[in-house]
Design goal:
By secondary structure, this protein is mainly alpha-helical. The protein contains five helices and no strands.
Length: 236
């Protein structure tokens, strides 16, 4: 194996190990998010994208070269020449096996490189979503508590309003009874006043009659006195 394909093979092994570490179930996305937020990653972030795309380009070039090698040693001409020479046949098949091996190594390296980038992105998104969900849950809890408090306050206000309405109803009923009582007393007083007026009028008429009778008796008394005076003078 040449140096470049040895480097690709070690890169593939490193990708496998790193992807397995990322897929460990007991390491949560929040912990990976904390790891990815270290200062060293923020310092390397300007170079990370360049390195990522450079590795993609290198792996694509090697993958195309591996495809070319596979096509080269699997074509009809090398096979025809190999049938003529047994040693050449083994050599062609060895070259074809190495080309296929390099193709698989490079293809899986390219695939795992893209998968690793996607896993890191998804872990960050899951962590951010969890943080946002926790914040939204806290806001929902606060809103629910506020709604419960407002509901309790509304219930207290409703109870107070009902009590006030009941007290006002009782007060209105008492006032109505008092008004009815006063109206009945007023009717009784008016009836008594009418009776008093009638009695006063009767007494006035009676007093007027007595005055006329007194005047009549007084005149008769004066007449009797006037009649007695001449008789007294005759007797003398």
């Amino acid at each position: 194996m040449t140096l470049q394909w040895t480097a690709v093979a070690f890169f593939l092994y490193a990708e496998i190990v790193f992807n397995l570490i990322l897929c460990i179930p007991f390491i949560s996305a929040q912990r990976w998010h904390l790891v990815f937020n270290w200062r060293i990653w923020s310092w390397l972030s300007p170079y990370w994208n360049k390195f990522f795309f450079a590795m993609i380009m290198a792996l694509v070039v090697l993958f195309c070269d591996a495809i070319r090698e596979v096509q080269k040693y699997s074509g009809p001409e090398p096979t025809h020449d190999a049938h003529a020479n047994p040693n050449l046949y083994d050599h062609v098949h060895m070259k074809l096996f190495r080309a296929q091996r390099n193709l698989y190594i490079c293809g899986f390296s390219l695939f795992l490189w893209l998968v690793m980038r996607r896993i890191v992105t998804l872990l960050n998104q899951i962590a951010e979503t969890s943080v946002n969900s926790a914040g939204l849950q806290a806001q929902m809890d606060n809103a629910f508590k506020t709604a419960e408090k407002h509901q309790e306050d509304n219930q207290i206000l409703k109870t107070a309003l009902l009590e006030r309405e009941q007290s006002m109803l009782i007060t209105n009923n008492q006032l109505k009874r008092e008004i009815e009582k006063l109206q009945s007393q007023l009717k009784v007083a008016e009836e008594a006043v009418r009776r008093s007026d009638a009695e006063v009028e009767a007494m006035k008429r009676q007093a007027k009659g007595l005055t006329h009778e007194y005047d009549r008796l007084l005149r008769e008394h004066h007449l009797l006195q006037n009649l007695q005076r001449p008789e007294d003078k005759k007797d003398q």
